[in-house]
Amino acid sequence: MMRKTLVLFVFLMILGVLFCRPGSHAAEDGEALFNSKCGKCHTSGKSPVFAPVKYASSQWERFFKRNKHERKKDISEEVSEEEADAIKKYLIDHAADSDRPIAAGLR
Question: Where are the domains of the chain?
Answer without folding.
Answer: 23-72+79-107
